[in-house]
Specification:
By secondary structure, this protein is of the alpha+beta class. The chain contains five helices and eight strands. It has one domain: Gcn5-related N-acetyltransferase (GNAT) (Aminopeptidase). α3 links the parallel β5 and β6.
């Protein structure tokens, strides 16, 4: 299958459209919400400038490898959250060292859902579609996800979309979020594992 660009995706309740400039107010609202950001990044809401940078980064994720990118999810026309299939840098790639080197057959997924939709299965529904799209349409070999050990909701979404816990790791941060003492976890599923489980 030849992948030209980022596709619009649909699930039972979600229309997932490639993230656009006009969605910035939605992603910024999530990034600037203390409840949403408790176990993400610095553990505090992003400033307006930081939230603008995040939206730019999310938009740029569509330029890295064909088919990857960030999707804004809508249910009955209302913004629910975003889901991403991001490119993974090659392990030996260093920043500012010529063109960015990426692993072509692997993606890291992620998601943020608006609090008013929490607990209704939306994160899992979108995450499952990300995994399906990565394997079935984009023919990638591996999907990974990472979160803080204490982020039980995110871990449940990863487990519920077919990924398994493969690693716990401890990074040092200048401004660590509360709870980072318990480290971070990596989850993973390969295309073969996903096929067998499907
Ligand atoms: C993590 C997040 C996306 C979950 O969204 P959601 O739509 O409420 O999740 P779902 O309703 O699809 O629930 C999926 C699973 O998570 C579980 N879950 C949801 N919230 C939970 C919580 N606060 N604590 C523990 N488990 C939780 C659900 O019970 C469900 O488990 P199941 O599949 O075993 O039934 C949402 O809480 C969020 O956006 N949080 C802030 C951003 C974030 O943490 N993003 C991930 C960072 S890596």
């Amino acid at each position: 299958m030849t992948i030209k660009g980022q596709a619009t995706l649909r699930t039972a309740r979600l229309e997932l459209v490639p993230l656009r400039a006009e969605h910035r107010e939605f992603t910024m609202k999530l990034d600037m919400d203390p409840e949403v950001m408790k176990t993400v990044a610095f553990g505090r809401p992003f400033t307006e400038d930081e939230a603008i940078q995040v939206h730019t980064w999310l938009m740029e994720s569509a330029q890295k490898l064909p088919g990857l990118g960030c999707w804004a999810g809508f249910s009955q026309g209302d913004f629910v959250g975003w889901w991403i299939l991001a490119a993974c840098p090659a392990p030996d790639a260093s920043e500012g060292d010529g063109p960015e080197r990426l692993i072509p057959n692997k993606t890291e997924y992620g998601f943020r859902v608006s609090p008013k939709y929490w607990g209704r299965g939306f994160a899992k529904e979108g995450a499952r579609e990300m995994v399906r799209h990565a394997f079935q349409d984009l023919e990638l070999d591996e999907v990974i996800g990472e979160t803080m050990t204490v982020n039980s909701a995110s871990r449940a979404v990863m487990a519920g979309s077919g990924l398994k816990h493969v690693d716990t790791f401890f990074n040092k941060y200048d401004t660590p979020p509360a709870g980072i003492e318990e480290g971070e976890v990596r989850y993973k599923v390969t295309r073969d594992e996903w096929r067998v489980a499907a």
